[in-house]
Amino acid sequence: MGRQSKLRQKRKQANQPTPEPAPSSKLARSNPLKPQQNRPPKKQSAIAKIANWLNPFSKAEDTSWLEEEDEVLEANNRLLGAVGWEGFQESKRGFVFVEELEGAPPQLDYVARRYLKKTLRQKGVDAEGIGVIDEMVGSYKPKQEVVMVYLRENNEISASIPPLELTPPEYYRLMQAEEEE
């Protein structure tokens, strides 16, 4: 996304009214996301440093946010799977929406497919991005996978079907058992 489109997105957001909250998952409300672990920076080998220095494209875009997304996923794998399954049971297809907020832990919610366009437009996602996410939501396997959409503070967005150690129904059963104890 170029500089001009980012500026347009910011202008659109400034002119939009405060969005209505999407239907919320019970598990998402009662289980906040775990904070990301502060890990020391990864050390690079001399060959990797030379390759990065020679590659002009590696400096063009900061991808450190992808590592942050992976850390959130790793720390909250069980919750993401459980919220995905609970949301599917209540609203059918949809995605787990993780939104970073300034000075607070990321917010987690399930967004049903029928609210997909409205929710993502309110967050400034362009039509092409909405189309890609809608395609993912239409094709994932709910009993085995979860679609996660991650929105950073600076409005960078990514969507993925992250690898899960267990299936969403198994995570849901684990979370239910923990809540009963």
Structure description:
- This protein has 181 residues and is an alpha+beta fold.
- The protein has a domain at 62-181.
- It contains eight helices and four strands; from the N terminus they run αααααββααββα.
- A four-stranded mixed β-sheet has the order 2-1-3-4.
- Helix 5 (77-91) packs across helix 8 (168-180) and helix 6 (116-122) runs antiparallel to helix 7.
- Order of strands, main sheet, comes to 2-1-3-4
pLDDT below 50 for ≥5 consecutive residues: which ranges?
17-23, 35-42, 56-60
| Radius of gyration, whole Å | 18 Å
Would you tell me the structural class of the helices and strands?
A: alpha+beta
What integer is the average pLDDT? 76
> Rough shape?
globular
What percentage of amino acids are in beta strands?
A: 5-15%
Number of distinct helices: 8
Helix and strand run: HHHHHEEHHEEH
Quick one: biggest sheet?
A: 4 strands, mixed
Helix content: 40-55%
Number of extended strands: 4
Distance between the termini: 47 Å
What is this structure, in a nutshell?
The chain is of the alpha+beta class and 181 residues long. It has a domain at 62-181.
Structural features:
181 residues; alpha+beta; 48% helix
